[in-house]
Design a protein that fits this description.
- The complex is a heterodimer of chains A (about 625) and B (about 110).
- Chain A has about 625 residues and is α+β, with helices and mostly antiparallel strands.
- Chain A has 14 helices and 28 strands.
- In chain A, strands 1, 2, 3, 4, 10 and 11 form a six-stranded mixed sheet that branches. In chain A, strands 17-12-13-14-18 form a five-stranded mixed sheet, sandwiched between helices. A four-stranded antiparallel sheet of chain A has the order 21-20-24-25.
- In chain A, helix 5 crosses helix 10 (about 370-385), helix 6 (about 240-255) runs antiparallel to helix 8 and helix 12 runs antiparallel to helix 13 (about 565-580).
- The radius of gyration of chain A is 31 Å and the shape is elongated.
- A six-stranded mixed sheet of chain B has the order 4-5-2-3-9-8. A three-stranded mixed sheet of chain B has the order 1-6-7.
- In chain B, strand 4 (about 55) and strand 5 (about 60-65) form a beta hairpin.
- Chain B is globular.
- Chains A and B meet through helix 3 of A and helix 1, strand 2, strand 3 and strand 7 of B.
Chain lengths: ~625, ~110
């Protein structure tokens, strides 16, 4: 008979209506799936009792792809068909992958396809397809363990994942036949796993040090609601660097050169990793490495020496913590909970330095490799409707500001970075020219003031605007970011209701590194940007004034002005055009605009009188008296 | 006639209750639904009603309302593993037929 799980009071399901839901931690190196059974969240293991599924897919021309440990076995013999670390290229374009300094261990098809495809023995495969294989393997494991079909899953993604990377993750799930309840940021999942959502209000720091990446997230819990205040980190820092540090030390101690000998280097790195793991519990360990000539070299490494080797690396993480706190606008003393995630947080020095930095002990009770999947499973259980408890509402942040291009190539921010999602913001814009009938909405992401320094996400046109004088039309631009971090931009002319919108599924993404670079640039160039912005603003203003004066002159310049007056105005106008095009100083343009306006004052007054006269013609003065 | 638990079921219920952090025991019941008439339910129990029957076996309180008890007399609750799947199982002497999937039964 079917095997039953204990439900919450009153939440028993009818036969065949079990709402089986899982949490999936789709990792760069390893993936996990977890579920809540009889009220307890636990990771689901495979036939051999292993929880971690290596995020590796092996393709062959004559059979279905293999996933996980089986695939990993092919690494040495068939490296090019054994695809690992596919998460690093999810949602990225060819150019981005090519220009990234990061090394990706597989080859791409040399074609012009927009979506990069990995060369495999079974034909070209996209990152989405490869991820889907991993998700399908996790789904199969879950359905076997739970004894039924899944209704849905919560899949975790790094807090830094942008729209395209999130969309790619969702696409992979769809392809694998997994219904995504929602995507959840990894740090938020970790906090849920520790039940911090049930605890006191406060600020939670989630310190996630994995094999190759480091993320720090600052969350705030208020009224039972999680809000991500800030995220930061380093996409190229992790336990692998600790292994490297030990390996370099070993080589130095042994007086050997291994750079050219991959076989030896691999053995040294393996021994280094074992030493690192041993030093979590032991005060010293012996590293033994077999040399190619059959000899073996032993070195004793103490915890103290190891701490010395990685001190600089660990320091980097606390520096990033400080930056994230600053971004979040909070003090160290405001942090009430610290959560450790990722296998590398088992290293005693990491734990000690983080606890010293925040001045409090960290949560380490749950296996740091599993904590994210467990949190996702708890959330999935709630979303599947298996829990009567209060619904958890999770808020995340967007990593970079979003906005649109305005005249002069300026970026007008509509949503500021680190704003919590889901959210919607609207702002009104207007037309620039008389009779303007269309407007192009250029959606941008970034912190800089000039469009050229920001990242273009999408463009769309709002057409069919009513012909009005410049500045009279009201165009309301709405930015909506849903709970998964996907952006929808709409534009509507308020008076007529004409509207257009776009769902932003950008075809490429940004790396953590690039986001960080963009942030750093925006700070480094803050002053330049401000000057560039005011210059552009004056240039746009100059263009507008020239445009207006030209339109006026064409209409009635000859009737209202004598030759000398006309010449004076056109000279001043031409001067303004020159200054606008040549001067790099906004103040110069400003005074040239002022000059033209002063010279034109009399003309403007005459125009006003003329129009009033023409309006009053045929009417009696009394009609205008109040 | 009472309701009993196997050792493995008792261990599991105790563990789950402990991890859940609250609850006085486990409530077994019958739901009249399903493709073959009736279905078992198993829930955490936070309260005991006046009309409830309470059985205590191997340190676990099993709570059953009188209506369900008619169908559950003599049942043994077991915890079983089938491949990767694991969960609770009702060994109910009153059961006459089951639907093919085993989720519902008739007496």
């Amino acid at each position: 008979m079917a095997l039953l799980q204990i439900s919450e009071p009153g939440m028993s399901t009818a036969p065949h209506e079990h709402r089986l839901a899982v949490g999936i931690d789709l990792g760069t190196t390893n993936s996990l799936v977890a579920s809540v059974r009889s009220g307890v969240a636990e990771v689901l293991v495979d036939e051999s009792g292993t929880a971690l599924l290596p995020s590796v897919v092996h393709y062959s021309s004559d059979r279905d792809p293999q996933v996980g440990a089986q695939a990993l076995e092919h690494t040495a013999a068939d490296p090019l068909n054994t695809i690992a670390s596919i998460k690093r290229v999810m949602g990225r374009s060819r150019q981005e992958i090519d220009s990234a300094s990061e090394y990706v261990p597989f080859q791409f098809e040399q074609d012009n396809a927009n979506v990069p495809r990995v060369k495999t023995a079974a034909g070209p495969r996209t990152a989405v397809e490869i991820s889907a294989e991993i998700l399908a393997a996790l789904k199969a494991r879950a359905e076997q363990s739970l004894g039924g079909d899944l209704v849905g899953a919560v899949i975790t993604v790094p807090a830094y994942f942008d729209d395209s990377q999130r969309q790619a993750t969702k696409d992979a799930a769809t392809l694998a036949g997994v219904n995504v309840f929602r995507l959840l940021n990894e740090p938020t999942a970790a906090a849920i796993a520790y039940g911090l959502d049930q605890g006191a209000e406060g600020v939670i720091a989630v310190f996630d040090l994995g094999g190759g990446t480091f993320d720090i997230s600052i969350l705030r819990l208020r009224k039972g609601v999680f809000e991500v205040l800030a995220t930061g980190g380093d996409s190229a820092l992790g336990g692998d660097d600790f292994d490297q540090a030990i390996a370099q030390w070993w080589l130095q101690q042994s007086g050997l050169q291994a750079a050219s000998d991959h076989q030896l280097m691999r053995s040294v790195l393996t021994a280094a990793r074992q030493a690192k793991e041993a030093l979590t519990a032991a005060d010293q360990t012996t590293m033994q490495v077999a040399l190619p000539d059959g000899d073996s070299v032993k070195q004793v490494l103490s915890r103290e020496q190891f701490d010395g080797l990685i001190k600089g690396l660990v320091k980097k993480t606390t520096v990033a913590c400080r930056r994230a706190l600053r971004d979040a606008g909070i003090e160290k003393s405001d942090v009430t909970e610290v959560v450790m995630v990722g296998g590398s947080t088992r290293v005693p020095l990491v734990r000690k330095d983080v606890e010293t930095f925040f001045g409090r002990s960290a949560h380490t009770g749950i296996d740091p490799d599993q904590v994210v999947a467990i949190g996702a499973a708890i959330q999935a259980d709630i979303l599947a409707g298996n829990k009567s408890g209060d619904e958890m509402l999770l808020l995340d942040v967007i990593p970079l500001s979003l906005g649109i291009e305005t005249m002069g190539g300026l970026m007008e921010k509509i949503i500021d970075r680190n704003s919590t999602i889901p959210l919607a913001r609207a702002q009104e814009f207007t037309t620039y020219k008389d009779g303007q009938s269309a407007m192009r909405i250029h959606v941008l992401q970034g912190e800089r003031e000039l469009v050229s320094d920001c990242r273009s996400l999408a463009t769309f046109d709002l057409t069919g605007l009513p012909p009005l004088v410049a500045g009279a039309a009201k165009i309301r631009v709405t930015f909506q970011v849903d709970a998964d971090g996907l952006l929808n931009v709409g534009a509507q002319e308020v008076n007529t209701g004409v509207a257009a919108s776009i769902e932003v599924k950008p075809s490429y993404g940004l790396t953590d590194k690039e986001i960080e670079t963009m942030l750093q640039d925006s700070m480094a160039h803050a002053k330049d940007d401000m000057e560039a912005r005011s210059l552009r603003e004056q240039q746009v203003e100059a263009d507008r004034v020239v445009e207006a004066i030209n339109a006026a002159l064409e209409k009635d310049g000859r009737q209202l002005l004598n030759a000398a007056e006309l010449a004076q105005i056109t000279t001043s106008r031409d001067q303004l055009i020159d200054v606008r095009n040549q001067a790099g100083d906004p103040d110069q343009i400003k005074s040239a605009i002022k000059q033209l306006e002063t010279i034109s004052e009399e003309y403007v007054a005459r125009r006003m009188n003329a129009s009033v006269r023409s309006m009053m013609q045929g009417h009696k003065v009394e009609e205008f008296q109040p | 006639m009472s309701i009993s638990l196997t050792d493995s079921a008792a261990d599991r219920v105790k563990t789950f209750l402990q991890k859940r952090g609250k609850g006085v025991g486990v409530r077994l019941g019958i739901k009249t639904t399903g493709c073959s008439g009736m279905a078992y339910t198993i829930e955490f129990a936070d309260d005991i009603e006046d009309t409830d029957e309470v059985f205590e076996d191997k340190g676990v309180k099993v709570i059953v309302n009188p209506k369900s008890l008619v169908y559950l007399q003599g049942t043994e609750l077991d915890f079983a593993k089938e491949g990767l799947n694991e969960g609770f199982k009702f060994n109910n002497p009153n059961e006459k037929e089951r639907c093919g999937c085993g989720e519902s039964f008739t007496v």
